[in-house]
C-alpha cells in the first residue's frame, strides 16, 4: 500500500488530495494544525468505509517551527517504512514580516526551512519506496537570483513579493539536493494554472483579502479540479526534476551556479536551525 504524506492536508488543495488518495485506497498522513478540520475531512472521505479511517493519520505540526518540523520527521521515521509521495502544500500567507517564538522569520521557515527538513529528513523513507515523488506547490519560475544569501530572513527591506520569490527559488533548488539524495526521485515544483478557491489561510492585508473573497468565487478553480495534475504526478512519477503550472510543463529555471546555490542553502539551514 502506498503511503502519501500531505502537509497542509487539512484544507484547500492539500485536503482535496487527502480525500482523493483515501478514496483510492492509499494510506494518507495528513499534516496540519487543526484536528477538527481533519475530523471533518475524514468523515467526508471515509463516508462509512472503516478501512479509510484505518488508513488515515493526522499528525499535528506547526511547520513555522523548525523544532516541530524536526519532531514530525522523527515521528514519520519511527512509524512508517516508506513514503511514496510527499506533497508539500502547507500555506499561511503573511504580507508583513513576522518573527516566531523561535526567533526566525515565519514565512521563511514555513515555506522553505520546514520543506528542507522534511525532504532531507525523509530521504531514507523516500528511497525505500518503489517510485518516490515529491510535489512541492511552491510555484516555479522565480528568477534565478531571487535569493538574498546575505539576509535569508529578510531583516532589511522585507516585502511580500521578495519573500515569496525567494522561497519559490529556494524550493526549486531544493530539488537539486533532493534528487541527489534519492536517486530515481521525481521532484516536481508545481503551481496551479490560475487562482484556486481554497482556504487562503493567512494574515492578509485588506487588498489581498478582498481580492481572494471577490475573485475566488468568480474565477477560482475548485481545489478538487486544480489538483488533478498532482494526482497524475503521484500515480505516474517521472524521475528527475520538473516544473509545472497546472498540467503545463515549464522549462526549469537554470542559474549560473545552481549546485553551489543549493549547497549554500543547505549549509545555511544546518547552521541557522541546528538540531536540538
Ligand atoms: N490557492 C491558490 O490560488 C494558490 C495559488 C498559488 C499557489 N498556491 C499554493 O498551493 C498550496 C496550497 O494552498 P491552498 O491555497 O490550498 O492552502 P489553504 O487552503 O490556505 O490551506 C493551508 C493549509 O496549510 C496548513 N497550515 C497553515 N499554517 C500551517 C502551519 N504553521 N503549520 C502546518 N500547517 C499549516 C493549514 O492547516 P491548519 O489550518 O490545520 O493549520 C491548511 O491545511 C500552497 O503552497 C500555496 O502557496 C495556492
TrEMBL record:
Keywords: Oxidoreductase. InterPro entries: NAD(P)-bd_dom_sf (IPR036291), SDR_fam (IPR002347), Sec_Metab_Biosynth_Oxidored (IPR052228). PANTHER family: ALCOHOL DEHYDROGENASE-LIKE C-TERMINAL DOMAIN-CONTAINING PROTEIN, YALI0E05731P. Pfam families: adh_short. SUPFAM superfamilies: NAD(P)-binding Rossmann-fold domains. This is Short subunit dehydrogenase. GO terms for molecular function: oxidoreductase activity. Transmembrane segments: none annotated. The lineage of its organism: Bacteria, Bacillati, Actinomycetota, Actinomycetes, Streptosporangiales. It comes from Actinorugispora endophytica.
